[in-house]
Structure formats: C-alpha cells, structure tokens
Predict the 3D structure of the following.
Amino acid sequence: MNETTCFHCGDVCDEIIQHDEKSFCCYGCKTVYELFSENDLACYYDLETAPGATPKEIAGKYDFLTQQNIIDKLLEFNDDSKQIVTLYIPHIHCSSCIWILENLHKLKTEITDSQVNFGKKTVRITYDASNFSLKEAVLLLSRIGYEPYISLEDYTTGNRNVNRSLIYKLGIAGFAFGNVMFLSFPEYFQVSGFWIEQYKVVFRWLMFAFSLPVVFYAAQDYFISAFKGLRAKILNIDVPIALGILVLFVRSSVEIMFDLGSGFFDSLTGLVFFLLLGKFFQQKTYSFLSFERDYKSYFPIAVTKILKGKETPIQVYDIKKGDRLLIRNEELIPVDGILINGNAAIDYSFVTGESETVQKQSGDNLFAGGKQTSGIIEIEAIKSVEQSYLTQLWSNDVFEKNKEESFTNLTNKISKHFTVTVLTIAIIATSFWLIVDASKAMNVFTAVLIIACPCAIALAAPFTFGNLLRIFGKLKFYVKNASILEQLAHINTIIFDKTGTITSNKKSTANYEGEQLTMEESALLKSTLRGSNHPLSRTLYNILDEQNIVTLDSFEEHVGKGMTASYHNNNIKVGAATFVGHQEEAKVLNTTVHISANNSYKGKYTFYNSYRKGLSKLFNNLKKNFDLAILSGDNEGERENLKKLLPAKTKLIFNQKPHDKLEYIAYHQKEGAKVLMVGDGLNDAGALAQSDVGIALSENVNVFSPACDAILDASKFNQLDKFMNASKSAIKIIKWSFVLSFIYNTIGLYFAVTGQLSPVIAAILMPLSSISIVVFTTVCTTFLGRKLQ
Amino acid sequence: MSVIYVLLTISIVVAILFFVAFIMAVKNGQFDDSYTPSVRMLFEDELVKEKSKIKLTNKTNK
C-alpha cells in the first residue's frame, strides 16, 4: 500500500489536506508551509524532503518570558536597542533546518541576525529590542515548528565559558616543535666547521627560547598531575613523563650554556606535541549530548501561579509551600503537591520509565516530575522544589562521587612498574660509569631518563580508545570518555531495568479473552476508543484491526473509570472491571480493559509489554561471560513472560524503588562485582551513578536521558554484546602496543646506558616510536570497527 | 651583519604572525563548531537564485 506522507513533516497522513497540489497531515504543517512560501522561503523544501515538525499548541506556555528577571538570565547580551539570545532547539537535524533558521530575518525584519550551531543544536538570535521581544522570538520559532527548549538548567548556569586551553597548548607545542626542528637541522648534518661554529650559539638560544613556552605552559598539566600523584603516593604515568620533560629541559639548557652540545630541544618539543595530540584525540565530545543531566534539565524554568484569581508566571525556585499553581496540558509538575481541581492524567515516564498515565482525583498527592497529559489542572504546592521526592534523590552521595578517580587504568598500573624499573636501570648504569669513567656518569643518568620517557606508552591508550569512541559514536553508542571504555572491558555483571529498557515504549500488545465480539460490536468498540484520549484507549485503538468508523449517537467518558457509547440499537461500555459490571478477579497484575455490550459482559483485553527485538538472543550471548539481572520498579505481572524469554539463571527482581536499585548495585559491588547498569528513566539515575558503568538507553538521543556514562540508541540495543567484546579487544590492542614500545625503549636504553645517546638518535627514536604506536593502534581499532558493522 | 640573521628574523616574524592568527581564530570560536560552516557555504547558490527571483517579480509588478 502506498501511504501518503506529509510534504512538511514526512509523517504518514491519516487524513489528507490538499494545498498547492501537496498533501499535509494537519493544518499546523499546512500553515507553516504557507508561511514559508509567502515569504519566498520555499527553498526550505528543496534542500531536504519533509524537514519540518508539526507546530504544537503553545497558548500561554511562554508567558513567563515577560518576567524581567527570567529574561535577564536567558539573554546573552542586552542593551536598549539590541538583544542576543542563544536558544536550544531539539528539532535541528538537517541542512534545511540550518537554512530556515539562518533566514529568520525574512520572516521578521526585527531579527537582524541568526546563526545556527548544528552540533549543539542551538541558534543565536540577534534582534532589535525596541519593537520585538524574546517572547515573540520564541513564539515565532514555535510557530514554524522549531520550538526551543527552555529548562531550569538555563536559569542556573547562565553563560558558560568554553575551555579551549588544550587547543592553545597543542598550537604552541606544534609551533615550537616545527621551528625547533628546522633550527636543529644544521647541527644534525654538520658536526664541525667554521660556519656551524660561528652560528650555532644563535640557533641554540633560539631553540631554548622556543622550548620555554612548551615546558612552562603546554606541558604544565603533566607536572601538576605528577605532583598530585606523588602527593597521593601513586606513581601514575605522568610521573615518568614529567621527569623526562624536566630532565630533557635541564640537561639541554646546561649543554648549551656550557657549550657541551646542542641539547635535546627537538625531542623535548616533539614529545610534548605528540602527548598533547593524544590527549586531543581522546577528547571526543558529543556536543549535542549531555552526560551530566539532573532534574534541572527536565524541569520548566517557570510555572503559572494563581493568586487571587490572577495568573502570574513565577520562577520555580520561588514556589513556596501553599502556592496555587496552574499546570497546562503537556507541562511538567515542578513540585510535590495536592490536586485541587481538574482532570489529572499524569505521565510519570520521566521518573519511572513507565509510559502509562495515572489518573488522579482532586485531593490526591502528585509528585514532582510527572507530566500532565489532559487539560488544565490546579495544584497546591506542599513542598519547595529542592525538597520534592524526585529532586531529593540528587542529594544522595553517589552523585558527588567521581568514578574516574576511583579507577586505576591500565596505563597507570603499568607505569608503576615502569617507573621503578627505569629508575633502577638509571641508578645501576650511573654507578657502573662512576667506577669506569666518572665524567660520563651524569650523561648516562640523564640519557636513561630521557630515552625511557614513556611517550609511546602514554599514547597507546588515548589513540586506541579515542578511535574506538569515534567508531562507537558512528554506530550510535555514545560513550562519555575513554576511561569509561576501559571500565566497560572489566564488567562482569550486567543489570537491566525493565520498563523502557528491555521493553519498547512505543509498542505494546494486548490479548483478548472472552466472548467473540460481533462485527458491529467491533466497529462500535473501535469508534468508541477513537473518541477517547486515554493512553490505554489510544494503544488499543492502534492495535485493533481497521473497522468502519461510525459516528456515535452518544459518547460519554467517565474519568478514571471508562466510557459508554451507543450507536443505533447497540451500546457499549469500556473500562475498569467494576465499571462494566464485572467482578474483578483477584491477583490480576497486568493492565486490563474490560468490555461489555448491551449490558452483558463480553471479555477483557490484557496488555503485555512488548520486548525489544533480539532480546533473547542478546541475553543468550551475554550469559556466557556475565551475570545478568533485571531490576524492575513494576509488579510481578511479567515474571512468567520474562522467564520464558530469558536464560534460566537471569535474576528477576520486582517492586524496586529507585533507592533499592542503588542499594542492590552497591551490595554487589561490595562483593567484588563490576556492575554495568542499563536503564532509561530518571528513576534509574541513582543506579546509573552507583554502577561502574551506567548506560542510558534512549529512543531518541536528542531528547533526554538521565546522567550516565554512555548513551545507547535503542535501535542498537541488541548489539550490546558486540560493544562489550570490542572494548575487551581494545585492551588487548593496548597491551600489544605496550610490548611494541618496550622494544623501542630497550633499543633506546642500549644507546643511553652505553653513553652514546646523541641528539640525532633521540630525535629519530622518539617520534618513530610514537608514530608507529599511533599507526598500530589506529589500524587495529579500525579493523575492530569493521567487524562491528 | 650576516644575511643569516636577516633570514632568521624574517622567518621567525612570519611564523609568529601565523601563530598569532591561529590564537586569534581559536579565541573567536572558529574551532568550536566545525560542522555548520561546511553546510552553510553550500547555501550561497540557493540564496542568489532566491534573490534574483524576487527582483524579477518586483520588476514585473512595476
């Protein structure tokens, strides 16, 4: 069947709206199209097919943008005539988006300039503040389907400074390296002669000058890190590096001062340059993802407060106990409160991962983090934002802990033995030369420390993991940093959350039990479900076969119970067991919808979770190497179903509160397990933070995921075992590069110990070892990546 | 004074000029977003076409 898709957003059209010989799925999309074509912006559709998004109903949502204190926090620049604001727009996804957002001035002449940062999904808008406002800019963007996302996070952080110091350092080291290399060329080839004797002083002091910023600025991180390591009594990899740099610099300076030789400035600058290059390569950042999210990025910046019948927007931190708040459709409840009036259908999927909405009656408690999904409600706040149930989870100590610090990586483990060995060799060689030829002793001591500087070892891990990070990123597995990849290789226990993680949010299946429905009854049921906005009705509506939709004679929805409808002579009741006049059976754990027609009970639909594709296969692949467990916040309704699907020894634990999950992981860690947690909702945030590696599964990586170490696209969930194996292979690659670099070191040590280390040999050997390690690891990881695809 | 000093001075001055240019570029944020400009520069043609079309329609209106 050939489905018609919307010209604007590309969705399948349920009902087709024709305009300009093009089809649209709704009036929203059509309006955006009209707006663009009127303003000569139809080029938008030439760049990419169906690039748009349907604009959403937003009446009143951005009223808070008239509050001066909120505006001040959001604006980047503000004077009487000009204002600049940077807005985060999640929908930015293609070149058409860049084009339209950078042509905003054609839609509104007050906008003077707009610039998109595609990676960060932001647009920076400059506008004339005298007859335009932030609110109007936001409304304009929303009207064309590019609704900005303004969260509490924007309020607290303000303008962030980008840290570019690594680029500066790399630039300086590269600049000095190149120049020093040129300046040392004459002495490589001409050892003596009139020309070199006359000018070598100039060349040498110029090299010295170039090396100063390298040692004192570009390499300062290594000195700081080595100092910190020594103070904590740890011999990390930066100790021998810092020692090498220091010895290189001191010996070279002494050599040129007393005219003993040309020094090793070329090796020194080259070494720092290569080390920084490794650091730079490892630092792959996904600017459009955030791994540090807490509740602030989910929460709205302001909420509507009702005071003496008047609605005023207030900042959420200003909410006090007892305030009356108005929550509109699709808005998030920012504080714990009591429902005063309105039809509350709360979606707690942010908190629990459970997408089914919960119906509430007035007087019921509502928890912060729930999203209202039907109409307007009024609540009374009973706590402030920081004291709410959900936000309190963030006061747990695990969120303060830095996982990287408590983990000794492979390089640092090796470096301990390495440093001790090098120092021993240096001391033995020096004592030997003290006896044989005392004049050479100092030369040999420094030469050993110079040549043994573990440049290649320090480069192996950054290049291997850096390359693997990129390969994983292409396969939609976004890892925060290289250290996480290394920890991933040590995992022996994997714990999964159930809802939203191993089950799919989008689809669920329902089984019908009871009397067969007649054709008319089925048609009536489908028509009835069509009229309801309850999520269960929507799900069931989508599952049922196509029927002729009839116009109902009467339809009534009873909140929290069900609905009644009639057509011709038939009437139907759909909803809870008691509502349709049926005795509820004891111990039914799954969600059910009961149906009765013409006052006689027909049967019920039981909903089951639909599990992700390839789940059984993934678990069977994983069971060989890992302990597996499932921690679910739900009841045991799915236990039997899961037992059938999963390998026998998988532990199934139900009814787990967010804090229980955290405790469970902490308990296993105490017993020596290295735990990988795979979760999705905010309720897993504690568990993700506690685990050794926390992976957040996301249906759409551009939307939100809790704080974690890595984000995995849901479509790649069944590849998890392959990613785990790849990280294990990466460790093997690093070990092999260590072997390679030890060979280089042994060759170098031979020259050093025998007192023959000349600047030329050092200048050849050091870059050679570094480059060959880089080539080796890059080739190996690329090969590894091929296998993954 | 030997010509080598002149050459050295020139080469270092040129090198430092480029280095300063690099530092300035980093400071202006030119390395912050390496993707959008690559797409943006391809729009140029579209925009010109767009403008000429508007001019044409304006002329016919007159």
Observations:
- The longest strand of chain A covers residues 503-514.
